[in-house]
Amino acid sequence: MNKGENIIYYKEIGEIRYVYNRRAKNLSIRINQQGEVRVTIPRYVSQRSAETFLMSKKHWIIKKLSEINQIADSEKKLREGDVLNVRGKSISIALKKGEDDVESAIWRILREEAHVYLPGRVEELAAIHGFRTTGLKIRQMKTRWGSCTRKNSINLNSWLMMLPDYLSDYVILHELVHTRHSDHSQKFWDALDQVTGGSSKKLRKELRTQRIMSVNPEH
User: Fold this and answer.
1) Angle in degrees, 0-180, between the axes of helices 186-195 and 165-177, rounded to the nearest 10
2) For the chain, what is the mean pLDDT?
3) Where are the domains of the chain?
4) Which of 11, 55, 61, 140 is a good FRET partner for 179, with 20 to 30 A between their CA atoms?
5) Percent of the chain having pLDDT more than 90?
6) Rounded CA gap, 183 and 87, in Å?
7) In this structure, are residues 218 and 102 in contact, taking their beta carbons and an 8 Å threshold?
8) CA 78 to CA 103: how far, in whole Å?
9) Paired strand residues for 172
């Protein structure tokens, strides 16, 4: 968890991520396409006030989360034998020993493909922009695209392999910039904008439309 963040679980809603932001002027709630609820708190607002604000919006949050779940349920469920398209490569989905469902097989396929592609791409982008990392881990994450540790080791979600290359690069660059600016200060956003050719805001907005898919939600 980053400094200035607090995660609390509520029975009717689930996990809520409270994030303090010095630049924020008002309390706000955002729900991304993965169903992650984030409450942004100005520095002068207390945690108790933020929770009161959250509960005043409880019914709206529950409704939005229900809509997200309905969208996921209505999407095509991939089955064994179907083809998964990964960066232009067609891979047949086949369960291996120890895998109980198609979702497990898909995550394994993406992990294998990510280990082939992502280390080299991270190294390439780091060299172009003069960044240094202490390591790279590729993980299965349901709510985050990536993260950067205090020791400048980067974690990347294997689901990046399902994104267009330019959005995958944006996530990598986002984490590389964190090796210089650990928080989301204005200096961070300025640096990210510089390495993305002035497109960071546009790319960030587009990334929010992408979903880390649960291809077998009934599991």
Assistant:
1) 140
2) 88
3) 5-74, 116-207
4) 140
5) 62
6) 31
7) no
8) 8
9) none
Rounded CA-CA distance 121/182 in Å is: 21
Contact 132/152 with Cβ under 8 angstroms?
yes
Pairwise CA distance, residues 20 & 67, whole Å: 27
End-to-end alpha carbon distance in the chain = 27
Question: Which residues face 153 on adjacent strands?
Answer: 135
Q: How is residue 152 written in tokens?
A: 């400048």
Angle at 129 between CA 116 and CA 169, to 5 degrees: 45
At the topology level, CATH places domain 116-207 in: Zincin-like (3.30.2010)
Could you read off the pLDDT of 89-104 as tens digits, one per residue? 899 999 998 888 888 8
pLDDT in tens, 137-175: 999 988 889 999 999 999 999 999 999 999 999 999 999
Per-residue DSSP letters for the chain? --TTEEEEEETTTEEEEEEEETT--S-EEEE-TT--EEEEEETTS-HHHHHHHHHHTHHHHHHHHHHHHHHHHHSPPP-TT-EEEETTEEEE----TT--SHHHHHHHHHHHHHHHHHHHHHHHHHHHHT---SEEEEE--SS-SEEE-TTSEEEEEGGGGGS-HHHHHHHHHHHHHTTT--S--HHHHHHHHHHTTT-HHHHHHHHTT-----S-TT-
For tokens 């095509």, name the residue: 76
